[in-house]
Amino acid sequence: MVLDSFRLDGKVALVTGSSRGLGQGAAVALAEAGADVALLNRARAQETAEKIQAVGRRVHVIEQDLGAATPQELDESVQSVVEALGRIDILVNNAGIIRRAPLLEHPSSDWDDVLAINLDAVFHLSQAAAKRYVAQGGGKIINIASMLSFQGGILVPGYAASKHAVAGLTKSFANELAARGVNVNAIAPGYMATDNTAPIRSDEAREKSILDRIPAGRWGTAADLHGAFVFLASPASDYLNGAIIPVDGGWLVR
After folding, report:
1. Residue 127 domain flag
2. H or E element: which one contains 65?
3. Residue 159 falls in the annotated catalytic set
4. What is the pLDDT of residues 47-96, one digit of tens each?
5. Dihedral of CA 118/119/120/125: which sign?
6. Looking at 133, 159, 191, 239, which residue is catalytic?
7. How many structural domains are present in the chain?
8. Which candidate, 188, 190, 253, places its Cα nearest to that of 221?
C-alpha cells in the first residue's frame, strides 16, 4: 500500500530547536508517523518530550547551545542519539535565530550569532549524521530553508545570507551523498505564525502587505509543515535529492 511508504516505524530522528513552534511540530509529526525522536535544544524541551511519549514513542533529550558548541561536541550529540535510541536515520536542522537591524548599524555580534546557529551548526550536525548514514547504508537530512533562501528580505542580512547558504549546502550535500543512499532536502516555510515573525505580525501595515501577497490569504502554522516533514523523512522521498520545497501558501508564485 502506498501509505506504508510514508511510515517511519523503527526509525530514529534528531530534531533541533524542538521546544516550540515549527520544531516541536516536526518532532511530534515524526513521532506520530512511527519514529523515536531525539530533541536538541538549549533548554530541556519538556513539553515536546511529553507529546512524543504520549503517542507511545521513545524520546532522548539533549541540552546543548548550538551557537557555542564545537564540531566535536556536536558529533558527540549525534553519537548520544545512537547510544540512547540505537541508531539515527533522520536529522532535522530546524534551529535558527534572526536578528533585525539596518545594514549600516548591524552589529557584528548579531552576524556571528546568526551564522553560528543557522549555518555552522547545520554543516557540522549534517556531517556527523552523514558519517553514520554512510556506514549504515542510508539516512535523511532535512534542512529548514526560508523564503529568504530566494529573496533578500529587509533588515536581516545575516538571516538572508544563512538561509541562502542552507539552500546551497542542501544541494551540495545531495550531490555527494545521493549515491550513498542519503537524501538531503530542505523545506522553505513561508510566512509562519511563530515567535520569529511576531514583530512583523504586530506591525499592522507590514502584516497587511504580506497577507495581500499570499494567495492562501493567511499565515502558515506548524501543522502546515507536518506532511512535508513526514514525506522527506520517509521512504516515499527516496528519489528526491537536493530539493528546496516551498510551503508558503503560494507566496513565491505570486
Report:
1. yes
2. none
3. yes
4. 999 999 999 999 999 999 999 999 999 999 999 999 999 999 999 999 99
5. positive
6. 159
7. 1
8. 190
Kindly state the greatest CA–CA separation across the chain: 57
Is 197 inside a domain boundary?
no
b vs e for 127-155, b when ≥16 Cβ sit within 10 Å of the residue's Cβ? ebbbebbeeeeebbbbbbbbbbbbeeeee
Tell me the mean pLDDT in the region 101-122: 97
Mean pLDDT of 221-225: 96
**pLDDT reading at 196 higher than 80:** no
- pTM for this prediction: 0.96
Residue 211 near residue 238 (C-beta atoms within 8 A) = no
pLDDT band at 197 (very low <50, low <70, confident <90, very high): confident
Give the domain extent around 106: 2-192+222-246
Residue 107, in any domain of the structure: yes
Q: What is the rounded average pLDDT for all residues in the chain?
A: 97
Q: Which residues contact 127 (CB under 8 A, 6 or more apart)?
A: 71, 75
172 grid coordinates: 551540495
Is 135 among the domain residues?
A: yes
Task: Assign residue 176 the CATH number of its domain.
Answer: 3.40.50.720
